[in-house]
Hints:
The complex is a heterotrimer.
Chain A: E1 3-8, E2 20-26, E3 29-36, H1 44-50, H2 56-61, H3 68-82, H4 89-117, H5 121-142, E4 151-152, E5 155-156, H6 162-188, H7 190-196, H8 204-209, H9 215-218, H10 234-237, H11 249-272, E6 288-297, E7 300-309, E8 314-320, H12 322-333, H13 342-348, H14 353-357
Antiparallel strand pairs in A: 1-2, 2-3, 4-5, 6-7, 7-8
Chain B: H1 5-12, E1 35-38, H2 48-52, E2 58-61, E3 66-69, H3 79-83, E4 89-92, E5 105-108
Antiparallel strand pairs in B: 1-4, 2-3, 3-5
Chain C: E1 3-8, H1 13-22, E2 26-34, E3 38-47, E4 50-59, E5 63-65, H2 75-85, E6 88-90
Parallel strand pairs in C: 1-4, 5-6
Antiparallel strand pairs in C: 2-3, 3-4
Amino acid sequence: MARISAPFGPQHPVLPEPLQLNITYEDEKVVNVAPAIGYIHRGIEKAGELNDYPQNVFLVERVCGICSFMHAMIYCEALEEIMKVEITPRAKYLRVFYSEISRAHSHLLWLGLLADAFGFESLFMKYWAIREKVVDLMEMTGGHRVILSACAIGGIRRDLTPELIRKSEDILLEVKKELDMITPVLLKDYTVKKRTVGAGVLSREQVIALGAVGPTLRGSGVAEDIRMNGYEVYRELGFEPVVETDGDSHSRAVVRVREVYQSIELALEALHRLPEGEALIKVKGNPDGETVRRIEQPRGELFYYVKGNGTKNLERLRIRTPTFANIPALLAMLPGCQMADVPVITLSIDPCISCTER
Amino acid sequence: MAVMLPTIMKNLFSRPETRLYPAEVRELYPHTRGHIEFEEEKCVFCTMCAKRCPSGAITVDRDNKTWTLEPFRCIVCETCIEGCPREAIKLIEQWRTPACAKPTEVYRSAAKQV
Amino acid sequence: MSYQTKIITTENVIDQVKQLFSAGYRFVTATCVDERDKFRVIYSFDKDITLVNLEVEAGKNEEIPSISGVYLCAFLIENEMKELFGLKVTDIAVDLGGHMFMTDENHPHPMAKEAE
Lengths: 358, 114, 116
């Protein structure tokens, strides 16, 4: 039985971003995996110490293109906690609205990539056609298609007029109707199940010991979602995490499909309950102190540590993104699977390598 | 197979999702972040916009009374528009056209034209 | 965000971490803050959405034992701290030799600050 070593990545049609896994095969079965990251390290934590603290909002948005609004939101929340600023309820509901449509956008993008990973190109194109509607909604309300620049320290810069609120609700209901036609294909089709069921299984104890987060954790039966903490207005909106128990790639896909529906519901509810008032408060002064914040991004738990020392520049900005925590789980899932399962398993943790390497 | 049947029927009998660009151009939404334009008669050279710009796209020279923009560094974040006390910078909805070389736009104040 | 912080020394890092492991805590991350004359390392753990922090202070040349013997997933962040700050972490389970993010031509330990 010969052992061959072949690289998976950094350029591969299935991977959205460059990641290299040096895999050792024994007759098409994976025996050993060695990761190599560092292809797009940009030094964002160091750059965060060189900019002024309001300019950092735009720097931090560009850590990742898909989950960019939530990076800005958690940075603004951390600075508001250090500088003891209380934002208005309208700003909190608007932040939840923007977060939930970002989450729906990210999961729809991933569902398309998953269908592309096993060659189901028509389903990939249908999911991305639905995603176009969500991206158009983001341009209509926030101004840009992907990197919104809508969050600022003190609230939200782009307020919604009543006409925009009505149009947003219509678009969200249209997205839900189109999703109802496509979802049974992913959940019930025979070939989709043959490729994903049983691929990359992790048990409940393994997944906690490996430090996995997000749908990787919830697909193996652990009911943990940082939105249960009730930051912003999630406690008023009433939130329950989505959990599946099988622990394979199919459960992780089902968790994300159910989360898209949940995000659309939460966004519509936030728009219905939007209170009157100002959306942005002026903030003066310099931050002095340290804090830790956590929120739930589409890929998992995001962790920020911010320390200010009384000047315009921050002393330390530490970002721990969810894919950084999911990589050890990926390295534990791969040994023992077939060569053709490697792309599907790698994609099932939703790798966002530009977040990992910042 | 039967699960995909409604989608197949809809795809066969409806128009395509893509549009024939550049023959057909999409209408832009109001307040889309296109690009910024500068009105030199209103500027008092306070340099607020240059201090606040996150990407360093604006340079202001107070002695020569010039205002320089590198348009391909601008990320259209509107921070300069919010900071300007005289509203000398405007947001335009059209996106910039592509270019082969990166230009730099220089504006001089009308008082200095000799 | 409510969280508790406990200050410990470099000798009993591994014992405290083993206690948290047997209580079922999940490892979140480790943060290194350079305070010019010493390093401050904050390890964060989570159980039932409650965060617990352990803070350790180490001099610039002091060695800290690795916790990847208890939590294997910590090897990535310890490699990063060793490479970017120059923190002396010993016995990491998978040691990538200081070349995880940066190549030979780059400036060594870019995030470390000089003492005043």
